[in-house]
Amino acid sequence: MSSHAIPLKEATIRNRQGLWLFFLTEVFLFGSFFVLRFSLWGDTRPELEQTAGLIATFVLLVSSLAMNRAEVAIAHGDKTKFRNNILVTFVLGAIFLGMILVYEWGALLGLHGEVLGIPVGHILPGDGVYGSVLYLMTGAHALHVLGGLVFIAITLFKGMRGDLTVKDHFFAEACALYWHFVDLVWVFFYPALYLIGHVVDIH
Amino acid sequence: MSEEQHETVTPDAETLAARLQEKLTQGIYVFLGLAALTLLEAGLVGSSTIVMMLVGIAKAALIINYFMHISSVWSEDDH
Amino acid sequence: MSAHAHDGPRKGMILHGGTKLSDYFIFNTDHKVIGIQYFITSVFFFMIGGALAMLIRAELLTPNSDLGNYLGDGYEYNSLFTMHGSVMIFLWVIPILAAFANYLLPIQVGADDMAFPKLNATSYWTYFLGSVVMMAAFFVGRPAEQPLLWNIAVALVAIGTIMMLFGTFRVVGWMQMVGISLLSMGVFILWGPTAAAGNITILLTVLTVLMFVIGGRFGTERTSAYVLGCSLLILALCNLLGGASLGIPGAAAGGWTAYPPLSASQTANAPDGQTLWIIAVYILGMASQLGAINMIVTVARMRAPGLTMGRLPLFVWTVLAQSILVIGGTPVLGGTGLALLFERLYGMTFFTPADGGSALTYQHLFWFYSHPAVYIMVLPAMGLISEIFPILSKKPVFGYKAIAGSSMGITFFGFLVWGHHMFTSGMSPWLLMSFMLGSMAIGVPTGIKIFNWIATLWGGKITINSPMLFALGFLAMFVIGGVSGIMLAAVPFDLHVHDTYFVVAHFHYVLFGGTVFGVYGATYFWFPKVTGRMYNEPLGIIHWVLNFVGFNLAFLPMHWLGMMGMARRIGVYPEEFQYVNQLSSFGAFLLGIAAVPWLINLVWSAYRGKEAVGNPWGGLSLEWQTSSPPPIENFPEVPTVTHGPYDYGKGIKPPIVEELPAFQPIPAPAAD
Ligand code: HEM
Ligand SMILES: [Cu+2]
User: Fold this and answer.
1) How many structural domains is chain A composed of?
2) C155 in a domain, yes or no?
3) C542-558 mean pLDDT
């Protein structure tokens, strides 16, 4: 209801704080999945495709770099660099999502054999605690990636329309922060799912 | 957007470009660090949870500090 | 939204950003309107929760089963106490505190609104959506057996849709909202949750985020209402496509704790309503989280000049502490709920030991939220009475720093003691001991508050009126609840009385004797501020007497019952407990009646009460430095604070805002 115009700087600080608090709630949400993983799997894990996992992790990492470049570019008024980099981010994000779907959720989606020389996922959500936790964690993360892709698309659109300026580009900053946050979650999910513990036969 | 004009003047194009370059280079270094830690992690597969988490925390610290510039939450000036 | 031309604050029900009644039925971003929306909605659910409590106590008048037992396994009684507990906690206590926080906090920090007004309205409507889902549990799955209900449901959907569309296109806010409510009720009655319910949850999550984005950033005032309407329409569509339900009718019956494996199973005691219950709790949690973010940023960024952290009213401190608890605790409940939901619907395994899951993990995660949740439910009430004591005894609050700091101490320790709910669930003796010691330690900051309140009253010029009586009632009842809490924290004692009526007595002394007493007092205390009219004092005192007597009659005997070994959550009990139970039921009925004078007072005084001045109690904090009710921007101009909120006796004359100029519309700020 306020009719006082809030100075831009103040508005940005408020939005930024709100966004970080939102991340904090997300940390606790993902934290609860993390606890589930350690309490249900302990020091065991199911057999997952290591190559796919490592490549996907790198894809997300590179997309994070591209996002960083896009954000600094728009903050310094370089629109071309912004566009190129945010496009790269989008494409890499989509590839990550696709890889998770194929190499983790493959069995659920009815895939068999190999895709691009890497075996597709063979675990189903009904496969005891291993399937359940795997699908819960990758699913929750993938949903955030999906949301991020939409966010990125909107940012790209706004940037090209000229809504984002050197002075006022909080929208791009928020998008970048969100995307890095999604990467941050994966920083912990990747070892939790792929690396920690010894492989057991899940059936 | 907002008609509110800020007192800080927009730096001229050259300063901007120089600053941009600096930031971009920094991003690359951070990325290289993250990549190295990821490879280290993948190489440590099966080792203790604590070690894995420590590597994870190191990566997280890099991301939070450089990519998400957390200090901008409490410092008043822009990053 | 109509944010133009006001002709001064009209006293009575029509206030603030709400210039006409219908403004209260729409997506209104004025924090005062939102506070009142929260208030009315949660009082409505208090009445429902209270009615369920009356039914519980009626059943317990005799040792055998009176309500009938049609579905086997005592389902009726189980769903009664489950829904009583859930409604009281999720739809009454938490939102009523949000009502006070929304109304008071921005005024107390000298701001013109919350940091994110649209987000604020979004939280209210998210709560509204959650409450509809929770209540729908009573109806789901029944239509097949009852053609009448089926027809009613179809009619509701039809009428609701028409009203919503009409309201939307003709911009008639109340019609739109009423339409949406009718529609959603109808949809839920028709709906038996199916496997599609899982998809729906995901969808709702996405939509909630959408509401956040659209409502928060680009929104016009009605945007979120559209999104809400759309989400419900999509829900209806999912149901049409979703096929048959699990086929087990009825509301949730797994207790408010919803422990698996029962809650994860598909049996008569975990019917379709259990699915809705989980979804509802998730949505309600979302509403709290959005609210908490808003509160923290408001306090961090929007304090008036001169209002340092050390000059914040104590209520603000407690809301801050509560918000931190919400941010750390509530998402964990959400994540756990999602896992439980997937286990119910998709045959996944998390918590059912027979399939390799761990029921204990659920308990840990649940109590990691729900122990902090008890502080979420009581801290702001402590804040409310921390305002009442110094102002009504005209003394500086004793130990301001200690009271403010102890809120933070409670917040910190609150995250570390959840295990005391699980002493009988099995854990290592070392853990038992540390949880026991931690739980006892958390009594210290609480004790600090109690002693400081007493010291504040000591030697003060105490005004005995309704708010003061209720605040004193809080103090006395909360001490009883706190002491029995320390008893329960001792492992050997808890092993004896766990899951008996002793526990029921304990938490009602804290939740009712504490929070609800505090809330009652606060409704009187701030009544003149909110409505611009004075409540009726004799009626308030009658309310207090009935309430105090009824409350102790109802709950004191429960300590006895528990010590004698009567288990909680049973509708049929051994005969030797009957007399004490009858005593308790009698008290409960008295307690039910006690709410009547309160309601009459609120409604009657809002229209007919004596006109109130701006500062009837001589308060020094900011909400008393503006007119009653406050103008739409809260203060004619940004206030400057030069002293603490309770600096009595230092020669500061509390401004008596009798003659505060009637509210003038604030001219648009000159271009600068
Ligand atoms: C109107 C006065 C009230 C009466 C007479 C009443 C009575 C009861 C009784 C007898 C039970 C135990 C049922 C059983 O274990 O078999 C119960 C449970 C409970 N009550 Fe109340 N209550 C009242 C108000 C409240 C309020 C204000 C709250 C919360 C703020 C509340 C929260 C709960 C909770 C959480 C449970 C536990 C439900 C469960 O076991 O899952 N009650 N109530
Ligand atoms: Cu507890």
Assistant:
1) 1
2) no
3) 97
